[in-house]
Write a structure and sequence with these properties.
- It is a single chain.
- This protein is mainly alpha-helical.
- The chain is built from 22 helices and no strands.
- Helix 3 packs across helix 18 and helix 14 runs antiparallel to helix 15.
Length: 424
């Protein structure tokens, strides 16, 4: 709700404003030990949590609105690249030989203000979202100037016209609230897909691996598990870069399917390796390889795609509310995994990842039958597709034109869509 309200101001200004939370949270945590006040630490963590929740909504939405259609997925993946690089830097600085000591840990936590300061310095030089200027504020000339700078050309007629068409359509609709997303048939399918994709990211088991990776590596027989955890962070970063180059070629849906399917296989291998590690000594190495492959496949699809595809599924009007709902579902499931995984590990032991295998299979099937491909399609084309199919009662996956969906169409007895790739 807060995200939806603040984003109604300006996209760039919204990102600037929330940096106040990062500064406040960092200062509270940094001085908590000096003040001998655990309350400062707790409040600081809470404030930083608010900042992270808002940023994970504002940043992908802004990126999707300033990016050209043909590169929207690649630019969206850059957001995830920034996240994983931040995780890796935090892991390195958290080593005992650097800042992970009893004396220096407050300084480590206070370092959260550095990205906020950098963002405050850089954002004033970034343009406002041209879509927001034209569609929400009706400032066509400003939107045109911004587009010309972003695209590097004076000819932005097609972009402006596409925004005008969406604006005309939006003017005929009533204001979209969070409840309206679930009530209206035009938005219901899209918001359910957005929520499911966010859940597929968190319930895949990736945070269970990262939160408790040191313990997992230790159980697997690694003598210095903390360095193995950093190795997983390096793999995390490398394969986010791989996804950056693949997302506009293979498509969002395909990469998400590959990631989910591959992670399910890795989780199964991980389970077998953990069960047999005490009997077969080399199984500990198999477990490590499975974990690293699990992390790599996560960053191929389920890591970056759910964040930016939410903005792609909705037009300008319902987008802030949809991003807020999707972000809430993501962080809620993140919290539940963090809280419940230790208990699941205690009672399930080496078989704990079977839980995530079940979730991965469920979300794989959901993605295969319900999630459309958004690569190369304008926001208006995507949202209009949902509206037409809501009226006709056609399964959502037929939005995509491709051989995988052709098979899905046959299985669901829906007449196959024309495959443009085969007509070339």
């Amino acid at each position: 709700k807060i995200l939806s309200m603040i984003s109604s101001l300006y996209r760039r200004n919204s990102m600037l404003m929330v940096n106040v939370l990062a500064l406040a949270g960092g200062i509270l945590m940094g001085f908590s030990k000096l003040a001998k006040a655990m309350e400062m630490f707790i409040v600081g963590r809470f404030v930083i949590g608010l900042f992270c929740g808002l940023c994970t909504g504002f940043v992908p939405m802004y990126i999707s609105e300033v990016s050209p259609t043909a590169l929207r997925g690649a630019f969206g993946t850059l957001n995830q690249l920034g996240v994983v690089v931040g995780i890796l830097v935090a892991q390195v600085f958290g080593l005992h030989v650097i800042l992970g000591t009893d004396a220096l840990w407050p300084l480590l936590l206070a370092f959260t203000i550095i990205p906020a300061i950098l963002q405050c310095a850089a954002l004033p030089f970034c343009p406002e979202s041209p879509r927001f200027l034209l569609i929400n504020k009706m400032e066509e000339e400003k939107a045109k100037e911004v587009l010309q700078k972003l695209r590097g050309t004076q000819d932005v007629f097609s972009d402006i016209q596409e925004m005008k068409d969406e604006s005309a359509k939006m003017s005929q609709e009533k204001k979209v609230t969070i409840l309206e997303l679930f009530r209206s048939p035009s938005y219901r399918q899209a918001i359910l897909i957005a929520i499911a994709l966010q859940l597929s990211q968190q319930l895949s088991g990736i945070n269970a691996v990262f939160y408790y990776s040191t313990g997992i590596f230790k159980d697997a027989g690694v003598k210095e598990p903390v360095y193995a955890t950093i190795g997983a962070g390096v793999v995390n970063t490398i394969f986010t870069v791989v996804s950056l180059f693949l997302v506009e070629r293979a498509g969002r849906r395909t990469l998400h399917l590959v990631g989910l399917g591959g992670m399910a296989i890795c989780a199964a291998v991980m389970t077998v390796a953990l069960v047999w590690k005490d009997t077969v000594h080399w199984m500990s190495y198999v477990s490590i390889i499975a974990i690293l492959a699990f992390v790599a496949l996560f960053e191929i699809g389920p890591g970056p795609i759910p964040w930016f595809i939410v903005s792609e599924l909705f037009s300008q009007g319902p987008r802030p509310a949809a991003v807020a709902v999707a972000g809430c579902s993501n962080w809620t499931s993140n919290f539940l995994v963090a809280m419940l995984f230790p208990y699941a590990a205690k009672y399930c032991g080496n078989y704990v990842f079977i839980i995530f295998i079940v979730f991965l299979v469920i979300f794989f099937l959901f993605t295969f039958f319900k999630v459309p491909e958004t690569k190369g399609r304008t926001f208006d084309e995507i949202s209009s597709g949902f509206e037409r199919r809501a009226e006709d009662g056609v399964p959502t996956a037929t939005l995509e034109k491709g051989p995988v969906v052709e098979m899905a169409n046959i299985l669901t007895t829906v007449p196959p869509v024309k495959n443009d790739a085969l007509d070339m």
